[in-house]
Amino acid sequence: MPIWASVVPDLAEKVRPLAGTLIQDAIEAIQDAVPAYRQPMEGKFREVLVGSVQAAILQCFEFIANPSASREDWLAAFRYAGRVEFLEGRTMDALQTAVRVGARAVWRHVSFAGQELGIPVDTLLTVAEAIFAYVDDLCVVAVEGYTEAQAQASGSYERRRRQLLKLILSDPPPTHQALVDLASAADWQVPEEVAVVVLEYRADQHHLPVPSLGRDVLVDLESGDPCLVLPNPRAQLPALEAQLQGRRAAVGPTVALADAHRSQRLARQAMSLVNRGVLPEVQVTWCAKNLSTLLMFADESLVTHVAQPIRAAFADLTDKQRERVSSTLRTWLHTRGDINETAARLAVHPQTVRYRMNQIEELLGDRLNDPEQRFLMEITMHAWNDPDEASQN
């Protein structure tokens, strides 16, 4: 405002008749200098470009005539122009370049006209300073509108994707048309198959980087049950572990899209079994590699029933003896009866393993020779020592 106040008010009246020429030349200069604006002057593009240039030039004249003139109209016009530029897909750099190129074109005409009209050089220099300060203000306002639209679009886009994820995982599954409609709004191509990855809940999960598996992966890291939906599991799963930033995950089986909730349910169950020590504590647990355990633990009462004979056989042992015998049997089962490998894992002599296995044979009888019994023992071993825990689970 102080700069405009130092400009001779008569200048506006002398230059105002040139407004039409100034507007046309500024538009031509913008289209010549900025590739993004080289398109037919029609529709929304013409409305915003012509309207913005016209508003800027006429407001400039207004400030020369009245330095305290209201700023509300041009603020609104350029904030709106910035929003449209984002929505039309042009960049912020293109927007700012266009404003400055247009200002230079206007200044050339004003400078020439001012000299023709005998306007003092000092006054013209003040006008130049005022115009380019004004242009800086225009850029700031337009960029505000651009970033507001960008933030709103991003927030709306992410909201639609989270809604889509929840819709995919709903049980019963949604209608195909409902899914297609929301997928289209979220710019997501509907696949035939998906895999659901359940992530462990962490208090700091909002601050951890989002797994970088591609924009077609749907992500929910905000809820108490964080998960991913992978529409191309074969391509995306191999890179999963490197993207987890230390978080544990359970990968559900690849299923038809309508069965995504089943993939999630199995992945949740697998994560729960890891937390309980039933499945090994690794960074990525694959349901496809643990289907027998998942099948068995679909009915916890059955697990308790199957584990009961082992608990009964070990009931008369002391706690120390029970732990030693249980750990030996677990390792022996894991190594498929390899005495030397069992000894190496337990850090004892192979003869010690043989002695303990003889003791276990006396306790269990022929069960160790029965493949089905060995399989049942292996998947219920977590329930051998603590019947109270087994019954609670």
TrEMBL record:
PucR C-terminal helix-turn-helix domain sequence ranges: 328-382
Determine the domain of life of the protein's source. Answer: Bacteria
Q: Which InterPro entries match?
A: CdaR-like_regulators (IPR051448), PucR-like_N (IPR058663), PucR_C-HTH_dom (IPR025736), PucR_C-HTH_sf (IPR042070)
What Pfam family is a match for this entry? Answer: PucR-like_N
Q: Which residues form the PucR-like N-terminal domain?
A: 4-169
User: How is this protein named in the record?
Assistant: Uncharacterized protein
Q: What's the source species for this entry?
A: Actinokineospora bangkokensis
